[in-house]
Amino acid sequence: MNAASARARLISRITTHILAAIVLAAGCAQLPGTPSPCPQCPPPKPAPETARYEAVPFADLPGWDHALMAPSLRAFSSGCRRFGQLCEAAASVPAGDERAAREFFEANFSPYALASSETGDRGLITGYYEPVIEGSRTRSDVNRYPILGVPDDLIVVDLAAINPELRNLRLRGRVEGRRLVPYYSRGEIDGRNGALPAPVIAWTADPVELFFLQVQGSGQIQLDGGERIRAGFADQNGHPYRSLGRYLVDRGEMPLEQASMQGIKAWAAANPGKLQDALNYNASYVFFRELPAADGPIGALNIALTAEYSLAVDRRFVPLGSPVYLASTYPLSEERLERLMAAHDTGGAIRGVVRADFFWGGGKDAGALAGRMRQQGKMWLLWPRGEPLPRAD
């Protein structure tokens, strides 16, 4: 038996055991009206979040009559393949024609207000951007932190192949002897000082900039020779994302209102002795792939994102490629931010029906807006007229 076959059989056994555990846990759940839970049962889990889609007229969308539609149509057209003939019709609308773009959306789509069983019709809207960090192709005394590609020993198990009800769930780990164990955490990876069976795309001097490159999921690296390369999300180590800002607030290191990207960077510069422990709190670690030059970073649809018109969503509730109308406010402001976006991306921290990440573009100005954006907002899904709402991806 070759190594690949043995590894496949090992993973199959492990996933079977995982599914068996899920079934057993469900089987011993307490029934309604039972006087007392059985002692061997795990505590009951909260019901999963569900979505409500309420059909509304366009007139109910705040600011709809004044929102620009031509740039929204351009963003939608870049990732609309799932919509077939509607995608072809969008391509025939004259570029920059506001009236024709508005007529296209109003004639072909119906708005549905999104509401969550947990948060109602309002949710958190954050921002992200494409950072540009300095680095080099080779390691030096200055550039000594690796920007890693996907390790050779990272195993990814798609659980949907075992059970369709577990779609969008993947198990990540590494083989240790005959066992599949969790992959290394951030602290363990950093502690190995680059000694990981993974390609190194580049090296950088600032661990905090590298951390935020991973949080954003993509970025550009300005090399010391003048060349600039783009790094995009390739995979992740399987550990859940945890907020560094929340960690610092909970430990009294900064007040909540200062827990922005800018505030965290300032804290890191003032507290170098505490930095690694703080970074290790977020055990999640992102691996990259080098991408060819494009108009923007590549999102979950494998297309370039559109600055200020691409949105990261939870694909369990919002199908990728869909037009999504957003009503929120600008960062640190009461100024209204209302526009038609395109659901082009996802993110590890973007979980919920009314939850989105607003893509601001690339560079420092975009980073300043993204780092301060933590607004409340509402969302409406636009879906082709007369068609039933599908299950999201």
Account of the 3D structure:
By secondary structure, the protein is an alpha+beta fold. It has a domain at 51-128 and 299-384: RlpA-like domain (Barwin-like endoglucanases, Beta Barrel), CATH 2.40.40. It is 26% helix and 28% strand. It has ten helices and 17 strands. The chain has helices at residues 3-27, 70-78, 85-91, 98-108, 186-191, 207-216, 244-250, 261-270, 272-281, 364-372, and strands at 51-55, 109-116, 123-130, 132-136, 145-148, 155-158, 170-176, 179-182, 200-204, 218-223, 228-236, 286-291, 310-312, 323-329, 336-345, 356-362, 374-384. The strands form three sheets. It has a six-stranded mixed β-barrel with strand order 3-16-13-15-14-17. Strands 5-9-4-10-11-12 form a six-stranded mixed sheet, with helices on one face. The longest helix is centred in the N-terminal third of the chain and has 25 residues, at 3-27. The radius of gyration is 23 Å and the shape is globular.
Give a quick precis of the structure.
The chain has helices at residues 3-27, 70-78, 85-91, 98-108, 186-191, 207-216, 244-250, 261-270, 272-281, 364-372; strands at 51-55, 109-116, 123-130, 132-136, 145-148, 155-158, 170-176, 179-182, 200-204, 218-223, 228-236, 286-291, 310-312, 323-329, 336-345, 356-362, 374-384.
